[in-house]
Design brief:
This protein is α/β, with parallel strands linked by helices. It folds into three domains: about 5-125, Rossmann fold (3-Layer(aba) Sandwich), CATH 3.40.50.360; about 140-205, Ankyrin repeat-containing domain (Serine Threonine Protein Phosphatase 5, Tetratricopeptide repeat), CATH 1.25.40.20; about 210-295, Ankyrin repeat-containing domain (Serine Threonine Protein Phosphatase 5, Tetratricopeptide repeat), CATH 1.25.40.20. Helix 4 (about 110-135) crosses helix 6 and helix 5 packs antiparallel against helix 6 (about 155-165). Helix content is about 50%, strand content about 10%. The chain has a five-stranded parallel β-sheet, with helices on one face. Strand 1, helix 1 and strand 2 (about 30-35) form a beta-alpha-beta unit. The chain has helices at about 15-25, 40-50, 70-80, 110-135, 145-155, 155-165, 180-185, 190-195, 215-220, 225-230, 245-250, 255-265, 280-285, 290, and strands at about 5-10, 30-35, 55-60, 85-90, 105. The protein has 14 helices and five strands.
Length: about 300
């Protein structure tokens, strides 16, 4: 991030304070004075200088709004679409509507808020660039499928770089399977926690099995994963394309420990699948007395 303060000579007195604010956010900033008498050749040269900056901070007052330098600068900003902030040294009168599409400030608190927001935004941009470059340098494709392969392989450090690069924790591979479902199916607990901490949808339904993460975990008897998902508020009553809940899947696999845990946290054992069978019906069919005793 390269910023430059553009100011009329008469407003030089505010530079020290603005520099201090930018420096407090670890933002490097230069300054460029404007002479209201500059003709077009000077203004054209200024535009070439500004090409080297990503952010423009313009100091002005209402009396500058009809100056040639300001009108030229405004055209440059609209054409380049660069991040800009207009700092008015006085009330800008009836021009609020004109500047509605820009960042505008009237006091040093406004400048501090702007600097803080841009510092955070720039850090995110840098983090994203670093992560993308890492993935490319390491030979990982910038696709959801490649991210999913890393989830399945348990490569948490690479998965973290995908998140930093802008891929969401709730994204899916080309088969429509959410990253969290892939992590659960592979039983990578650390990645499960990481994805959840970064906002993964714990009730996302996969396109292939129509399962939620907790249903995937129940079908494989993964109690640790189930406990994590339950603690995060996973829906126990979601049903697969066959109408099976996590509890029905656990009972169907004869998993006493997982079945009794799900019952202990309130799973409904009377919900029925498309065959008209409930978890209690399956427990009775398979004579699972250790489970039936928790189904009054």
């Amino acid at each position: 991030m390269r910023s430059v303060i553009i100011y009329p000579e008469k407003d030089r007195y505010i530079l020290k304070r603005i520099f201090k604010i930018f420096n407090s956010q670890n933002l490097k900033v230069d300054a460029c004075t404007i002479d209201s008498s500059w003709t077009l050749p000077y203004l054209s040269a200024l535009s070439e200088v500004l090409d080297g900056y990503s952010h423009l901070f313009i100091v002005l007052s209402s009396e500058n709004l009809n100056d040639g330098w300001f009108l030229n600068l405004l055209g440059y900003i609209k054409g380049s679409k660069k991040e800009s902030f207009f700092y008015f040294t006085e009330d800008n009168g009836n021009n609020d509507q004109f500047f509605a599409k820009f960042n505008v400030g009237h006091n040093y608190n406004d400048v501090l808020l702007y600097a803080e927001e841009e510092s955070i935004r720039w850090e995110n941009v840098q983090r994203k660039d670093i992560a993308r470059n890492y993935l490319i340098d390491m030979g990982f494709a910038l696709t959801e499928d490649a991210m999913g392969e890393c989830v399945v392989a348990g490569q948490q450090d690479v998965v973290q770089n995908y998140i930093d690069a802008g891929y969401t924790s709730s994204c899916r591979n080309s088969k429509g399977v959410p990253m969290l479902c892939l992590a659960v199916r592979s039983n990578h607990i650390d990645i499960i926690k990481y994805l959840i901490d970064n906002g993964a949808d714990i009730n996302a339904i996969s396109d292939d099995r129509h399962n939620t993460p907790i249903m995937d975990a129940a079908s494989k008897g993964l109690l640790d994963a189930i406990q994590i998902l339950v603690n995060e508020g996973a829906d126990l009553e979601c049903q697969s394309k066959n109408g099976q809940t996590a509890l029905i899947l656990a009972v169907g696999h004869g998993d006493v420990e997982v079945s009794n845990y799900l019952l202990s946290v309130g799973a409904n054992y009377m919900n029925k699948d498309l065959l008209g069978m409930s978890a209690k019906s399956y427990a009775t069919l398979f004579n699972k007395k250790e489970i039936l005793r928790n189904m009054p």
